[in-house]
Write a structure and sequence with these properties.
Length: about 240
Amino acid sequence: MTVKSGLVLCAVLFAGQALADCTPMPVKGDQDYSVCKEWPAYEGLTLSAYAHLNPAVADAFGTYDLDVSVLREGQSAPVAAYHQAAAYTLEGVGLQEIALDTARYKLAPDLRAFGVRARLNNGSRLNPVEENQLSLYVREGAKLRSVLSKLLVYQYGGEWDGNCAGEQFEITRTVEVAKTNSHGYADLIVKTQQTRTTSVGEGDACEDKTIVDKPVLTTLRYDGDSYAVPIEFKGL
């Protein structure tokens, strides 16, 4: 369940995300986002994420701090928490949504991570930009620790003249836990699929030419502190 601007939004989140029977943290501003979800891997535990605009930072689209926590049913105080100042520093795009990802990120025999996904876009018709980012966290006692930061799992962009001529691209990435490991944590296999479309002509003669690239597999390895992410895989 997600809260934005103090209202409950009953909408479909990202693929594979379900609304949870929980109460998100109240938001303070009309540009803040709050979401919560039951953690299926651990009975009685709920995940919460709160992205709040930092009013001390003056910029066009905003700088967001992020608070992530694990709560136990019936208790108000979190059993584990994480705070990141300036988690999202936005230039040319705005934060549209956050969601919790409880897929089976089993990084070690007794350790599961969970994800926070952020969707960003610029709202432009002629020069659109959209990103979905994934960050992963693990619980260590009363603390949460980030082990994967802002992996681009979806990216869309392009340029269009408003009539026909233009180019656009779309990149999707999926994450699979590998059987191999590095420094005690499972490697992550990222599958990248890219589609490129070029439009030429005018009016009824406008034609699209689409090229679908072959999928590319990339292995992300834990370096003892976090998963190293190639710069081209990093979100804004």
